[in-house]
Every structure is written in C-alpha cells, then in structure tokens.
Amino acid sequence: MGNRNSVASPASGQTRGSANPGSPAALDASKLSSTLAKTLKPLQPIETLRFGQTFSDHMIVATYDPELGWSAPEVKPYGPITLDPQCSCFQYGGNVFEGMKAYLGPDGKARLFRPDMNMRRMEKSCARLALPPIDGDVVLELIKHLVNVEKRWIPKESGYSLYIRPTVIATRPGLGVTASDHAMLYILASPTGPYFARPVSLLAVSENVRAWPGGTGGHKVAGNYSPGFLPQRAAAEKGYDQILWLFGDDRRVTEAGAMNFFVVVKRDDEDGVDLITAPLDGTILPGVTRASCLALAGDPEFHQEISMRLHPQEMVYTMSDLAKWSSEGKLLEALAIGTAVIVGPCNRIGFEGKDIVIPGDGMGPVGTAIRKKILDIQEGRTEWKGWGVVCA
Amino acid sequence: MGNRNSVASPASGQTRGSANPGSPAALDASKLSSTLAKTLKPLQPIETLRFGQTFSDHMIVATYDPELGWSAPEVKPYGPITLDPQCSCFQYGGNVFEGMKAYLGPDGKARLFRPDMNMRRMEKSCARLALPPIDGDVVLELIKHLVNVEKRWIPKESGYSLYIRPTVIATRPGLGVTASDHAMLYILASPTGPYFARPVSLLAVSENVRAWPGGTGGHKVAGNYSPGFLPQRAAAEKGYDQILWLFGDDRRVTEAGAMNFFVVVKRDDEDGVDLITAPLDGTILPGVTRASCLALAGDPEFHQEISMRLHPQEMVYTMSDLAKWSSEGKLLEALAIGTAVIVGPCNRIGFEGKDIVIPGDGMGPVGTAIRKKILDIQEGRTEWKGWGVVCA
C-alpha cells in the first residue's frame, strides 16, 4: 500500500475488487493502491487553523457500481472530483458523512476515539438512504491507513487533531426518483483546533424543526444540515451563536446547532447531579461523544476518579423544565456535545424574549471533568475501556 | 448569444457580470456566452426514452462567488462538473431543483407551462436553504434560450416533451456547518415521454414521514427525496408502486411518492363532485400542476367546457375519511399530480393490511378532463389564461 502506481485497467478506468460479474465486489482494503502527491503542502501554523478549511495532501477514494461493486480504494492527491450533473447527490440528496478525530499521543502514535461507533452509524446512515451497502470495518482500515499516510498533519498540541471526514455520495446518473445504485466513498483529512473557545449562546426555536420521528434526524445524512442554515442566520441576527432545536407542542429540548445538548441539574435527593439529555427517539443524532458522556456519567470508576456522583438521564425535558430548574437554582451547566466541540459551554438560552442564564458561563466541574477525561483518552494520556484506538 | 467563444479572463477563469468588486453581480442573461458541441448526438427513438436518462447536447451553467456574484452564464456541451469534495452540496445538502416541460405546439413553437410559478418556487427554495439569491426571471430567460438551442430534442408526439431541470447546488468549500456562500446553477434538458402509462398502486405509510411543519417539505429541495427511497423500496417489496405519505396521529393524507395527490369525491348535495387535496401547511409541495388542477376545478368556464360541476377543496383529510368515502361509494377517482406525470391514476391504496380499491382503475371523467385540458394548453392546442408561454 506504498507509493506504487494504480493497477487500474485502462479499458474500464477502474480496478474492481472482484472479477466475478455476478457478485458485486465488497469494499476491500487489501486492494488499496496509492498515487502519492509529487509535492507536499507546507504545514499551516496551528493558530491560523479554522475548522474544515485546510486539507491534507491526500484523500482515499473508492466507487461503487451496481454490477461491479466497490472499486479498489485509492490513496490519491487531495483534489476535485468530477461527476455528471444529473447525479443523485445533486438532485435528490442521498449523501452521508462521519466526523472523527485522530490525535497524536505522547507515545507518538496516532489514535482514533471509538471509531467503531462512527462506522456502525455510517452503515446505518447508508442503509437509511438506500445507498449501496458498505462495510464500516473496511472503511476504518482505510481511515487508519490515511491517518498514517498523513501523520505529519496531526498537530502535536493538546486540543488539536486531524479531523477525518469519511463521506459517501450518491452517484447514480439519471433523474428518476429512486435509490442510488452508484456511490462514491471518499475520506478527507483536515487539521483542526478547538472548535470554539468561548461559550456559545443558544436561541431556542420551535417555528423551525430540525427532525421528526420517522425522518432522518437520527442518522448522519447531509440533508439534515442545510435546513438549519436559515434559522441559524436569523438567530445570529438576534445575537445568538446557535439554535437550540425544540420539538413538539410541549417544546421538548433536542439538539444545539449540529451538536447534542446536555444539562447538569442538581438532584432533590442531594446525591450528586443529573446529566440530562434527550433520548434517541429518531430525532436525535446518536453521537459518539454523547454516548461516551452518558457512559462516563454512569461509571462508578469515573465517579471515584473525579470525586463526584453523576446520574446519566436520557429523558424528555422541555423549555418549561429548563426555566423551572433555572429559577430554582438547580440548572448548573449547559453543554454542547459533539466530535468537533467535544464538550463546550452554553452560557445562555434565549426563549420567548427572555434569556435563561447558565451559571459559570455554562461550564462547571461536570463538563470540565468529562471534557478532560475524554481528551485524556483521545490524546492517549490514559487508557480507558478500549476507547482510544491506535492506528496501527 | 450565438456560437462565440467565452470571453472569460484567463486570470480569474470566469467572466463576471459586474466589474464592481463591492457589489456581487446579479445573474444576467444578456451576458450569456455559448460554446456549442462540435458533434451533435443522434436523437433517440421516442419509444426507448426513459424519464431522465437521455440528455440533450448542451447545458447552461453559471456560478456564484460571494465577492464577484454570478458569473456570466454559459451554454456549453452537456458534460461532467468538477467540484471540491469538501463542498457543501456533498456534505450538508443545500441543493434545490425545478422540473418543467417544453412542448412543441402545432404552430412549431416551443412552449413552457406556467414557468413563472416554477421560478418563484425556485427563488423560495434557494432562500429556505440560505443559498445565494437568484432571480427566477433571469433563470427563465436562460431556460427559454436553452429550449430554443435544443429545439430539435423536443419530440413532436403528443405526451412527449423536453423535460427541463434547473438545479442550484451549494458549492461553498469548507466543512464549517454554515450556509453556502458559493453556488452553481445549471440547467439540463432531457427528452421524455409519459411518466407512467399504467395506474399506480400506493402503500399508505405513517412510520416514515416525508415532511413536517417547520421543515422543508413545502420547498423543492434535494434532501426531501432521498429519505423516501428506503420506504419506497419496502413498498415495492410488498407489491406497491409508490408511497402514500401520511402525517400525524390522525393519519392525514399528504403526498403520493414525489407527487401531489387528489381524490374525487361525490358530494352529498349532488352538486357535482369535490376535488380534494391537502392544504399547503408546509408539508406539501406547492406543485404547479396542483395549483392548475385547483384553478381549473374552480373555474366556471372550465365547468361549462366539460359539462361538469367541480369544487376544489384544499382540506385536511385522513385515511379514515378515504375508507369511509370508499365504503359509501363516494370515492370516485384517485389522482397523482405533478409535472412529470401531469395527472395519473392510482388504482388502490394499501393501509393496515387492506386495500382501498378505486373504481375505474383510479381515473374517471374528472382526471381525464383535467389531464386533457392541461395537455391541450401545454401542447399549444388551446390558449388558456396565459398558462402556455412561448419560448420566444
């Protein structure tokens, strides 16, 4: 899988994983070929990095054809892709993606954080949009390979990482309104720093709705995101950073921007605090960081480590609940949770003309402890239940 | 706008509509340049045409840059487009499209059907996804130009047309989850015949939801379509052609596949029939054919022409209503309505293990009369309230 030429046949223009015409080839990492960039880009000073703006030298690409199956994946110089304008990805959506970060540990090894969870989610996202089947374990092999090829792009500084963006797009040519039986997988790598350093303010919105039961809000599909841009712009004009998405007549709290959302609430029984987030009812993205926060919050070993009692609560809660907890002094922290942000503070929530102000600018001991723990695992300073996965 | 070379500057690679750097240029049809195909494709026998599979020789393309605005539009040979894989159109959706048909009249002129309605909807779709602003009147000028360039592609046979697909895609480079300040407009042309000749069967589905209030179901955006592919596949496995999308606990009837849906119901007062469809509450695409059916149904001049009394009804109605009307013998016709299909029959609706069977295979005198009227207007055999617009 070094710097050798692609063995693509000139006739087909593609190497296929199988010569059997009756059985579409599965994605096969052992078939990976590499065409490395002739000139490598200079690394960018980390203080000038902005999320998703700088890309490494290479990407990995594979394509799916309904008869041939998956092509042999290829490492190639990062660059444009060429597609027919009739393709399903432009006309009918049908694109899915994942977000992951590779960190450099003190041992000099590159690590991913619970990548198996991203891969299972990617498989489900593809299935939800009726895209061709894809084996996440093979995608993970390809990701690890790309991380190693691009290791010089992983910043050494804490909080910085190489953000990995596996993407599957629907490439069926034709305007018929039907599932795409063609696809392209590509994996991009982008060095990145802390997503936002300052606390974010949220505007709670119910006139626009991010997701609905029976829709695709529980999957990581491209079409979930663009409908949020207009409400986001309106929120910015009112002085808020992000939307807090509500759902239903009872104004249930769901997600914050493109992130999961947690609140830390003091318990009536004085037995520590509740870490509350909305349940996975199909309107909530099953975030990897979300699942990790809940797992840590329910883990006695972690409680001992941080000398706090946490109670993970996946439950329906509403703006009325937030307002009540706030007025009673029980609302202690408000946290935006996601791969890019990890754990970030939310300092106020605008709703019906008033602001719910979160003490301590949103982040307190719970958010701080969870963030530190996850970053320690991600950056390889601590071993924890196999969550940090070395790109060997 | 003939066959002259583009005057694009080699430095920028693009001709811009304005030299003023402070004011992004508006889309300007008078700046259109043409690079015509050196060899024209042979026309395909019409009996082999399948919807959206064959494309004409040329397309029109223009791009938007936040500083420069819209580039000078260009007629160029139909062919692939090249984009950065980080583009918003792949990562976050943000694509919109329109569907229109150009017909050849007995006077040899090419006509569009109420294209102003498509253009207003396209402007709204772009605004809903926070895409750069686009002037639909200018897009219409470009469409008319393309139709005339591709006139030989319009089949002369009744029911056949040149399907026009204006598309706007989000081309902002970068993974930041924010509105795309870059875009590409392209207009494709595809000769097409009757969308489906035989009646379609529908499976009523409530476990998947096409659209919801506060979402994007009332706009023509790419991301509305791919979430329907999996339910559609499941329906096909059960022996149904398309989904009848329901909404809410009361199982309201909304749309059929990617089409509007109408039923013809006998009135209690014996004063003709009701033509019933769901109201535009944000979950229903405001179809051009839908609006035209409703307008005809409410027009005394049309009533006189067809010697029938019709009452257009935009109202909430449920599967219980359908079942009741069916059992009472009042459910006379069930019609799928859209640009591609025009007016097509639905012969049965599966729901909770039973079929509601529509008499006459779905289509009766009302659907037949409306279909004939619309096709007469589209094909230029009759003049009606300015609905047929000649591509002059």
TrEMBL record, chains A, B:
The keyword Transferase applies. Its cofactor is pyridoxal 5'-phosphate. It catalyses: L-valine + 2-oxoglutarate = 3-methyl-2-oxobutanoate + L-glutamate; L-isoleucine + 2-oxoglutarate = (S)-3-methyl-2-oxopentanoate + L-glutamate; L-leucine + 2-oxoglutarate = 4-methyl-2-oxopentanoate + L-glutamate. Gene3D superfamilies: 3.30.470.10, D-amino Acid Aminotransferase, subunit A, domain 2 (3.20.10.10). Keywords: Amino-acid biosynthesis, Aminotransferase, Branched-chain amino acid biosynthesis, Pyridoxal phosphate, Transferase. Transmembrane segments: none annotated. GO terms for cellular component: mitochondrion. The modification N6-(pyridoxal phosphate)lysine is found at K220. Residues 1-21 have a biased composition (Polar residues). It is an enzyme of class 2 (transferase). One of its GO terms (molecular function) is branched-chain-amino-acid transaminase activity. It comes from the Eukaryota. InterPro entries: Aminotrans_IV, Aminotrans_IV_CS, Aminotransferase-like, B_amino_transII, BCAT-like_C, BCAT-like_N, BCAT_family. SUPFAM superfamilies: D-aminoacid aminotransferase-like PLP-dependent enzymes. Signal peptide: none annotated. One of its GO terms (biological process) is L-valine biosynthetic process. Its EC number is 2.6.1.42. Residues 1-27 are annotated as: Disordered. The keyword Glycosyltransferase does not apply. Belongs to the class-IV pyridoxal-phosphate-dependent aminotransferase family. This is Branched-chain-amino-acid aminotransferase. It comes from Suillus discolor.
